[in-house]
Write a structure and sequence with these properties.
The structure is a single chain. The chain is mainly alpha-helical. The chain has a single domain, classed as Chromosomal Replication Initiator Protein Dnaa, Chain: A. Helices cover 79% and strands 0% of the residues. It starts with a helix and ends with a helix. The mean pLDDT is 86.
Length: 121
């Protein structure tokens, strides 16, 4: 009985996350999400879900950092991530582990490249 209830809750959460992603993500955000998911080996469901595995937390941190650098407010990022804005502030203000700095820089270049490509159209 408990397993069935847990499975229903999980499916409901998946549907809610998918609906949220469809409504809130802009082209640039979708691009960043896809690149971060690929680089960190996580799914979009994990990125916007509640799991707190280290690689998923790092992926969220990278996403929030890049969105903040792109000019998004904490409230906008919170709406995109379906989280409270104070959670976003915590993620952005906590330093990134040094071993992830090269990945962050690579993602920054990709984000800049996407912006230039969009402006040239």
């Amino acid at each position: 009985m408990k397993d069935k209830l847990a499975q229903q809750r999980y499916q409901h959460r998946q549907q809610a996350v998918q609906l949220h992603m469809a409504q809130e993500l802009t082209d640039r955000t979708r691009y960043l999400v896809s690149k971060i998911c690929k680089a960190c080996d996580v799914t979009e469901m994990q990125l916007f879900g509640n799991l707190r595995l280290a690689r998923i937390v790092v992926a969220r941190k990278l996403l929030y950092q890049l969105l903040r650098e792109a000019g998004y407010t904490y409230q906008e990022i919170a709406r995109i991530a379906n989280r409270h804005h104070s959670t976003i502030i915590h993620y952005v203000k906590t330093p990134i582990d040094e071993k992830y700095i090269p990945l962050l820089n690579k993602l920054r270049r990709l984000s800049t490249k996407w912006e230039k490509k969009r402006l040239s159209l």
